[in-house]
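Notebook entry, structure prediction.
Reason for the run: the old model in the group folder had no record of what sequence produced it. Starting over properly, with the input documented here first.
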Amino acid sequence: MRAVQFVAPNEAMVTDVDQPSIGPDDVLIASRAVGICHSDFELLSGQYIIPFAYPVTPGHEWCGEVVEVGKAVAGLVPGDRVVGECVVGPGGRDHFGFNIDGAAAELFRARGEWLHKIPDELTDTHGALVEPFSVAYNAVRHLDRVDPSDHVAVLGGGPIGLMSVMAVAACNAKVTLVEPEARRRQLGLEAGASNAIDPTDDSFADAVGELTMGRGFEGVIEAAGSPAAMSQAIDLAGHGGRIAYVGINIGSSPPAPMGLIQSKALSLRGLIGSMNVWPESIRFLASGVVDPSTLVTASFGLEQALDAYEAAQDTANNIKVHIRTGS
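New structure, fully documented this time:
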């Protein structure tokens, strides 16, 4: 069968591999759609946040169809449409699509306990967006509460940031996107942001003061992963503010105004993945209140996967790129 493999740092190919066999706790799945994430490029570069070994098949944002079910797996039958969690294993020590072969293949194996069925209301495209949306939804949940009394800042207008905007807006809270690129600021407004402001503009501090009446933001979701944004989140939060860090940063030590954490009595949460919120995320998407499929700007077949990765790096023209791995 055909699969994408990362075989060495910055070396990827579409190649023939053996079809995986399954054990009693496993499920064999035919891949249907796979999203490409910034963390896939960290994996390809050899700098991912947990240990892994090449060769590895990427693909942690996916939707597929059950082909075969292990004897010990309950609740799934061939033909079921499923999605699967990325951060798995005891304490979340393993990451599917990183140190475990992922879904960018014709067929792949996953443990039954990682899987969730999706309803007919969700297309395969929606299914492959459950993982990134669940990260955004998890960030909103870890702000402890988000309601119409809150003004939340989302730092970063990538896929996770834009989905965070959608999730916050769906909670009827006011949300401001902080993003330097004009096109992504416009997408933020279309996603539900009340305001979208440029952090590099000379008037940025004045704009924040005016938008928050000098109080700062009740909640901040840091979805950029840049050292500047990670530090800026602390500056933007108001007294008693809550900050959720979901942007992944590897290999640098961002400066942090530590005194502000104490003086403003801030609550900070660092998050990886989205364990324990998948059923809620699926129901949220199935409700139709938000539709992140509008963020998918390009799709490629499995044989054109390398073109898909190239397109995903063209952030000026693409937000989310999918590999279509089945009919």
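Summary: The CA atoms of residues 227 and 254 lie 4 Å apart.
The old model has been moved to the deprecated folder.
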